[in-house]
Structure formats: structure tokens, C-alpha cells
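Support reply, case 0932

Customer input (verbatim):
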Amino acid sequence: MRRLRRGLCGGVLALLTCLPAFAVAGERVELFAAASMTDAIDAAVARFEASHEVDVVPVYAASSTLARQIAHGAPAEVYISANVKWMDWLGEQDVSLTRRADLVHNRLALIAAQDSPLDDVAPGEGDSLAERLADGERLAVGDPAHVPAGIYARQALQSLGEWQALAPCLARADNVRAALALVARGEAPLGVVYRTDALASDAVRSLGLFPESSHPPITYPIATIGADPSPAALELRSWLESDEAMEIFKAQGFR
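Our regenerated output:
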């Protein structure tokens, strides 16, 4: 069956109504996942589909974007958020969340371009991060107003006493992968992303990890959507917690 690959999920319903009938035949599951899980979920879906007669359609975006899409009726059947807040918010919108559990965990990393002359540094234990930015240079982050990676970054920088100096210097991206791209393309000399994002790109390198004590735990909850999930959705949901799936997540840097 032809697989649909989509990034940001605007226009999901419109897209589905335009597809030819053969593209949606058979068992099919819509999986909405945080952008930081793109590589891990792509690998997991390929493994799952190889042994199950189910076509999985992943949709990647900021957890906030996905939650709002689901609340407005997007046809998600399984949702993985990059933080607990947006999963909680979705439940508060009277969306039925079933089989909810914490799936994996992550770390927060300071990154630079692969060829950057900047030395490695442990945030909170070395020079001020603000001092590493020249006049006019920006720190790339997911938008702290709603993107989980940006929210964690703000909390970490506040804890380390760096927020006031760096807040005016932020390049605010729509999701963590967009922040990663700003550093990879050389548009920002530094960025704060998840450890898994740093590992996923050959164009950047991690300068150091933020102390885990500087922000709340980075937890990815998973749940099926709706009071009566389809057998295919339940099958995928259960498999994503299997030892086989966990080995894939670990290989991508998740814990």
C-alpha cells in the first residue's frame, strides 16, 4: 500500500478527502508524533509494517501543533507527545485518551555546526552561553511559548541564570527539528535541542548536555485516541512498548 509521508499536519482532513480510494484501502493507522521522534518512528514503523498487515501513516510536528489538530478533529489514532503538558491539555479538551503511558525519555543538548570552532562546554559549569554569541547572533530553540523543547530550554536557562541575557537573542522555531536546521545551515551558531536530534544530524555536534536537574524530566507520553480504538491502533500502540521497539528507540538516543 502506498504510504503517505507528511510533515506538519495542516490540511490533514483536506488531504485525506482528495486521496484515491486504493490509497486508503485495508487496515491503516494515523500516528501523530512529536517532530523529535521522526527518525525513531520512521525506523519503528518500517519494522512494524514488515511483520504486520497494517499501514501506518506518521504525521510529525510540534507536540502543541499536533494536540491542537487532534482537538479540532484530525484523524489521529495514536499520539506521542514530547511532554506531559500537551497530553494533559488534550485530555482537558474532552478528547478520550486510552492506554496512556510514558514511552521514552530524552536529554537537552547545546549544539553547534559540525565545523564550528566553539569548544565543548557543560552548560552551567563553564562560561556564560550568552558570551559565546557575538553581536547579532542568535540561539536557535523551539518556540518557548508552546514547543516542548523550547519550554524545557527556557526552564533550563532560567535555572542556570542565563534566561534574562539570552531571551532577546532567541531564534524561535516552530518545532525542534526546525531549530536544528537553523544551526545545521549556519543561520544560528548555537541551538538547544534534544540529545536525539543532535545524534540524528551529521551537520551538527553536541557541545554538552544540560543538567537534568535544571528542568523537569523530558518524558514522551503515548496514548490511543478515542474511546474505542481500532484493533490496528491497539496493535501498534502495544508494539511500540515492546522490547523490539525499545531497541530502536535506544539506538536513536532515547532512554
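We compared this against your earlier run and they match. Two observations from our side: Residues 1-25 have pLDDT under 50 and may be disordered. The CA atoms of residues 211 and 249 lie 22 Å apart. Please reopen the case if you see a mismatch on your end.
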